[in-house]
Amino acid sequence: MIDRVHYQLPYGPLGELLHRLVVRGTLERIFAFRRRELDRRFPA
């Protein structure tokens, strides 16, 4: 499974800062959780 997420935050430099401080980590946690759940529910 491959996920491609395309997004752009508003507010120029402030949006970039928010991305680095909050958004990127949140997205990484969401997809890590999904991966763990898929592995748990559908073991190889």
Descriptive keywords:
0% strand; mainly alpha; 44 residues; single chain
Can you tell me about this structure?
- The protein is mainly alpha-helical.
- Helix content is 68%, strand content 0%.
- It is built from one helix and no strands.
Major sheet: none
Quaternary organization:
single chain
Q: Approximately how much beta-strand content do the residues carry?
A: under 5%
Order of SSEs: H
Count of helical segments? 1
Shape category: elongated
Q: Determine the structural class based on helices, strands and strand pairing.
A: mainly alpha
* Count of extended strands: 0
End-to-end C-alpha gap: 14 Å
Q: Which value, in Å, is the CA radius of gyration?
A: 14 Å
Mean of all residue-level pLDDT scores: 95
Unreliable residue runs: none
Helix content: 55-70%
Write the layout of secondary structure elements.
Layout: H1 12-41
